[in-house]
Amino acid sequence: MRLLVTGASGFLGSHFVSFLNAHTDVPPVLLGRTLIVGNHETVLVDSFVHAPLESLLSECSFDGIVHCAAISSAYECETHPEQAIAVNRDFSQRLAQVAANRGVPVCYISTDLVFDGAKCPIDGFQESDQPKPSSQYARSKYEGELAVLEAHPEALILRSSLLYGSQIGTRAGFLGWMKSALSSGEQLSLFDDEWRTPLYAPDLCRLIFEGVMSGVQGVYHCAGPERLTRYDFGLLYANHFGFDSTLIYRAQRGDTESIPPRPEDVSLNIQKTLRDFSTSPHSPSEAFGLM
């Protein structure tokens, strides 16, 4: 059993490769634009837009695809929308078509931002709720969902909430700048009017692996069990690791001009995931104890 993994140099991708190496006997085959440190077979592409996938992968053996690669910068997607569509939608569809042609599963990682967050249900958005993306990044990812399912109707779509965890490789995730500021004694402003359901990265890795290995299909929401503002999350982080929490100040989304505008509440409901998967995501307090 071997899994083809894209985006291994990114935050989630590096966590997933590390998870495979540490907890499974399934070796990753990496597809990307750069060589990754380690003894991993790597298929290099010059561009995700023009990569001839079928010919590149013709001599590569794998039993499933985990697609973590994306243009994830909201600002970059907003300012270069054609590139966002080409990578997040079109490349994803072509990769799913490769999986369909070979008869192997594919897992596409999407985002909670497919919802605009204006009117979040009290228990969070469910998979049956209609997406309403409000940014080019979100639109490209949602169109990617539809394109992947069109190419491979048995695909697994995992919509992830805000990811956090230890740094593996070059990407620190959103905890990186928080830790840097607090370690330096700098003031840190965090929004107290923006809600998410933060997800511990290793938990998403377990959900991905379980889903691909067991043949789960369809759309699933992947999030932590707690709905928190970024401010509340920052306080939990600071208090757990012994940083000075008085350095953290409340901020409002309206205080800072954002391109694109920030959503208010994209909390996810994970009851379907808890029903169909054996993995139960940790709360931030539990996850911090594992870091």
Describe this structure in words.
It is a single chain. The protein is of the alpha/beta class. The chain has one domain (3-165, 198-225, 267-282): Rossmann fold. Helices cover 37% and strands 16% of the residues. It contains 10 helices and 13 strands. The strands form 4 sheets. A 7-stranded parallel beta sheet has the order 3-2-1-4-5-6-11, with helices on both faces. β1 (3-6), α1 (11-23) and β2 form a beta-alpha-beta unit. The protein is globular, with a radius of gyration of 19 Å.
Strand content: 15-25%
Instruction: Work out the radius of gyration.
Output: 19 Å
Order of helices and strands: EHEEHEHHEHEEHEEEHEEHEHH
Number of strands: 13
Q: What share of residues is helical?
A: 25-40%
Q: How is the main sheet built?
A: 7 strands, parallel
Cα end-to-end separation: 29 Å
Task: Summarize the SSE layout with pairings.
Blueprint (H helix, E strand, L loop, with lengths): L2 E4 L4 H13 L4 E5 L8 E4 L8 H4 L8 E3 L6 H6 L1 H22 L3 E6 L24 H16 L4 E5 L2 E2 L9 H10 L4 E4 L3 E2 L2 E2 H14 L3 E5 L5 E2 H12 L6 E4 L19 H6 L7 H5 L3
Parallel strand pairs: 1-2, 1-4, 2-3, 4-5, 5-6, 6-11, 7-10, 8-13
Antiparallel strand pairs: 9-12
